[in-house]
Amino acid sequence: VRSGALRFLSSPIFWLVFVAAATMPLWLSPYYLGVATIALFYIGLALAWNIVAGIGGQMSLGHSVFVGVGGLLSSALLLKLGINMWLGMVVAAAISAALGAFIAWLDFRFRLSHLSFALITLAFAEMGQLAAVGSEFLGGASGLFLPPDHGSLLNFEFGGQRGNFYLLFIASLVCLIANLVILNTPLGYYLRAMRDNENAAQAIGVALLRNKIIAMMISAALTSIMGTAYARYSGFVDPYQFAAPHVTVEVVLFATIGGLGTVLGPLVGAGFLVVFGEIVRGQLGGALPGLHFFIDGVLIIVVILLMPRGVVPKIAEWWDRRYAAVPDNSKIIAETATRT
Amino acid sequence: VSEAIGTVYVSGIMGMMMPYAIFVLVLLFRPQGILRRAS
Lengths: 340, 39
Prior knowledge:
The structure holds 2 protein chains of 2 kinds.
Chain A: H1 3-9, H2 12-22, H3 24-27, H4 30-55, H5 63-81, H6 85-109, H7 114-134, E1 144-145, H8 161-183, H9 186-196, H10 198-203, H11 208-234, E2 236-237, H12 239-242, H13 245-258, H14 264-284, H15 291-306, H16 311-323, H17 330-339
Antiparallel strand pairs in A: 1-2
Chain B: H1 2-9, H2 12-29
Helix pairs in contact in B: 1-2
């Protein structure tokens, strides 16, 4: 059952990419290191969202609530109550997991269609942003500034840009491993069965409520942790940056373009599109304002039209057709022919 | 209308959240739509 995950982790290409990514602070300029850090944030979010939507088929558009809880609550706990941000991160993740469990329960209890589930979670995202804007404790509309980073690990400070890069690198690596583990354990099989046909899955004995709640809790907690990590990197948190529904829309876009339900899809989609978007904005944003949005949009439309299942499944399909080993049956056929 | 009523009768953020709350309740209890009879 676990061979898929082991095969992925023992692949030389994985380790090559891993080493290249881990050494980025040594060979990237501060500007591009910042871009890479933002890309890691979105990679983590896309991978966390993939657990629920890609593997489980629950199209949640409310994950910005969990990013907001992770970023805003942990920062508010530190600034208003003096609670250590490590503890704040755990508290925020636990609250996000509880919220996720409630949303999953609603989905099960009311037997929501995919459309209703997506719309309800979108409404929760809007309500979450409004609640954060109206909350004095969470900093309201003007947001909160985190204290300067002095590099004290015990206080959730990582010593500037390099340290924050590694924080987000490790957090997104945890999301990647969570995807690998879930895909290769019974939970992953149950979730895929539920995604393909919920009634059939229930008929063969899959516990819908339990698996939906577990998947949503894991996804929400990981999303919240990414929010806390990004808050530390950004140094400033506000509801428009952390709890806005457009955060989820971007994540949905990245994961869909890369390939839903796969481990590499959200990683490639978010990694490529964030970096591409930033480079295009840097190169062309000054020449004609808004041109980078146009180029981004055209690219996304072209990819969706040519590869509706995503870039990674399309490349995998092409690779299999080109290089997959076809068993040589000619000898067996010849032997059978001589016997008969 | 719900947004207008919300902001008039319920002050602040709660009033702005009211349309979304109504929207969620309709989707949960009348998934076919308010005027459509459930099959």
